[in-house]
Amino acid sequence: MGLQMELRGDLVGLADDGGGPLAVGHCHPTVVQAAHEQNLMLNTNSRYLHDNIVDYAQRLSETLPEELSVFYFLNSGSEANDLALRLARQCTGHQDVVVLDHAYHGHLSSLIDISPYKFRDLDGQKEWVHVAPLPDTYRGPYREDHPNPAEAYANEVKQVISIAQEKGRKLAAFFAESLPSVGGQIIPPAGYFSQVAEHIRKAGGLFVADEIQVGFGRVGKHFWAFQLEGENFVPDIVTMGKCIGNGHPVACVATTQAVSRAFEATGVEYFNTFGGNPVSCAVGLAVLDVLKTEQLQAHAANVGSFLMEHLSQQKAKHPIIGDVRGSGLFIGVDLIKDETLRTPATEEAEYLVSRLKENYILLSTDGPGRNVLKFKPPMCFSLDNAQHVVAKIDDILTDMEEKVRSCKTLKIQPNSVKHLSEETQPTQIQQDGKLTSTLKIKQV
Ligand SMILES: Cc1ncc(COP(=O)(O)O)c(C=O)c1O
């Protein structure tokens, strides 16, 4: 197994920025060696056909439904989604896109336009972009007590499509992460994506599954997160990035013959200087080899369920943990201020993340309220790593609760408050002593 979490001392990277794109572990020797050997031999642009690109497409096709048999190689997830957009527009002759709220699909101008997470703070929503609610059964309009949340959320997409069509708009695609990560580590209800695919196809559009964060065995049960939807569900386009190259810039778009033929019909060839170069493909092949030989998909399933179980035990202990959800090594812990309203505990999440960092654990937050702890470690993350992280979270939450309790006691005895420094004073504490948004605790 490659280097696990030990990157200089005991740094444990669980977040996307802490190691998530490193599928098989930092500096995995097999991957490093494959890049080195191919670099010694030849690297060139992809105008010249090299065996590696063919072998790599072949190996990727073995992981996908057979309809997805055409592969385009690129250098980043953003490039992959931009090409997916071009393919969908060319194939359908339509321009418009439906996306999920709070989605992020990349940094190119075309993708900022279909990323509510970004465009809401920039130029706003373009007329060709249509936003459907996140299928969030914890905090969204249809929750765990709804009889059919999949249908209810899919109907929201249907309605978004109808409203667009009434304005004379024509849909090219529905874009979504197979598990919306930026939206808060959301696990859509089973059946949702199949119904959405029906609605978008009926409107003449294609279904694009963004697997850039969630693909390559991370979800444990399957190699691709869209497969959680069932065997019969096949997107028209799948985009891949991040983990695909274990840190090396590689990306891929997989699609059907029909979509690619429509794209080629323009006579304008697809060319990408470094996309699919021999070194990148050697790296991609090595990542697939390591995933297989080290059985990292099964490992993700085992460690992921262990981690979920232990985090759920923490939920029973700490009221700030509202929800623990996930699949394999893709897990979200939703922190709340109060059980009834499920108000995001944004500041508390930020505080927890900073305390974890002091303990050499890198974790980030996601979701509209920036209150969902994001677990997306390299897939070699071990049971020991999981235990260690959960123990630290437990310690910090216990400490936070203790501080709130003592502040509350001091507040009840007004005279004692003056002994506290400015920084340790909570400006607001609920009756039940739970943490609130204005809690300011500094370690003393
Ligand atoms: C879901 C998703 N899609 C696309 C991208 C863009 O990938 P890249 O940063 O490699 O261009 C990202 C990056 O964070 C992402 O999280």
UniProtKB/TrEMBL annotation:
Its cofactor is pyridoxal 5'-phosphate. CDD domains: OAT_like (cd00610). PROSITE patterns: AA_TRANSFER_CLASS_3. Keywords: Lyase, Pyridoxal phosphate. Pfam families: Aminotran_3. Belongs to the class-III pyridoxal-phosphate-dependent aminotransferase family. This is 5-phosphohydroxy-L-lysine phospho-lyase.
